[in-house]
Amino acid sequence: MSDPDVRLLISTLLAQKILNGIDFPIVTTVNPFASPHGLPLGEAEIAVAPTSSDLPDFFELSAAIEDFLVDIAAQVRDGTIDTTGEDPQLLEDLRLIGSKIPGPGKSTTEIFKESATSAVGEAIARILNTKSLKVTVNWVRVEMEKPALVLGNPIVLNDTAVKVQAQIRGCIKIIKEFCATVTSPRVRIEGRKISLNLRPQGTKIFATASVDDIDIVVKIKILKWSFEIRIGITGIVNGQLKKEPPIEIVDLSSFEQAIPFSNKKARISDISISSAEGLLITATMKVS
After folding, report:
1. Residue 140 three-state SS
2. Is residue 84 over pLDDT 90?
3. For 159-199, how does the pLDDT look when each residue is reduced to its tens digit (9 = 90+)?
4. Any idea what DSSP says for residue 57?
């Protein structure tokens, strides 16, 4: 293989100077115009979380689902809701919960106390499970702080701190379906990696970006039961990045050199890239 005609070494120092010229934080919102009833970005994973979990809490969603459960239980108790074809065990559980609901104007504290007992606790646990809950993601907002940079292919932005926020729509089915739309707190995640994968094409170099593990995990707590909700932001953002056109980062098509005593010029015809204490760009020249 013959030696290249041109070698261009971009040092880490030069790349860092370029990085220093960028205004951080960089903010990206995926699906920013989604309505609560619009097409969601994706579905979140749900799992039972330890009661002692210190995950960020969706207080509004927790309270809304709690109120819905109490309301349905009261309707079943009073016979004011159509229960035709419903599971007998579900109705029995709801009647038991309904029997513990205090009168008008009183607190539901007693339900919390009773939920610690065997019968009521087991009834609530049968109703509130990962199958009865569904959480979809409407939009995602990612705020990236200034990272450390490692040149090569891919170019890696290490030790990246990001602040992530999402709007979710949580639904629960207990005879009827109830849904509520809430926005998560901003969760700061440190030590993440963003890669720029480089691809030469003719006289240009293009980059496609991907992020590494920026999922956020929050919880909802209904009575004494906690549910862990993992919002798969990594897949959502990477999926969106794949739809975007590659970023053009180098264009050597305008590079040309006149050849003395002729009307010909030497032009870049093809380039390639490699890592060598920075980013090494090599190119072949064509005379025409």
Report:
1. strand
2. yes
3. 888 888 888 888 999 999 999 888 887 888 887 888 888 88
4. B
pLDDT digits (tens, 9 = 90+) for 40-49: 777 887 777 6
Q: What total of structural domains would you count in the chain?
A: 1
Contact 168, 136 (CB under 8 A): yes
Q: Looking at the predicted structure, is the pLDDT value of residue 93 above 80? A: yes
Taken in order 50, 56, 57, 61, is the CA torsion positive or negative? negative
Residue 263 lies in a domain: no
Q: Which residues of 175-209 are buried (b: 16+ CB within 10 A; e: fewer)?
A: beebbbbbebeebebeebbbbbebebeebbbbbbb
Rg (C-alpha) for the chain, rounded Å, is 29
Contact in structure between 141 and 268 (CB atoms under 8 Å): no
Crossing angle between the packed helical segments 118-127 and 88-98, to the nearest 10 degrees:
130
- Domain of 57 in residue numbering reads as 7-249
Assess whether pLDDT exceeds 90 at residue 223. no
pLDDT at 95 over 90: yes
Would residue 275 count as lying in a domain? no
Task: Determine the average pLDDT of the residues in 52-81.
Answer: 84
Establish if 273 belongs to a structural domain: no
- Tell me the CB-side half-sphere exposure of residue 43, using CA atoms within 13 A: 6
C-alpha pair distances (Å), 267 with each of 2, 24, 273, 285: 18, 37, 18, 5
Contact 191, 159 (CB under 8 A): yes
Residues 28 and 141: beta-carbon distance below 8 Å: yes
Task: Write phi, then psi, for 220 (nearest 5 degrees).
Answer: -120, 140
Do residues 28 and 205 lie in contact, with contact meaning Cβ atoms separated by under 8 Å?
Answer: no
The pTM is what?
0.70
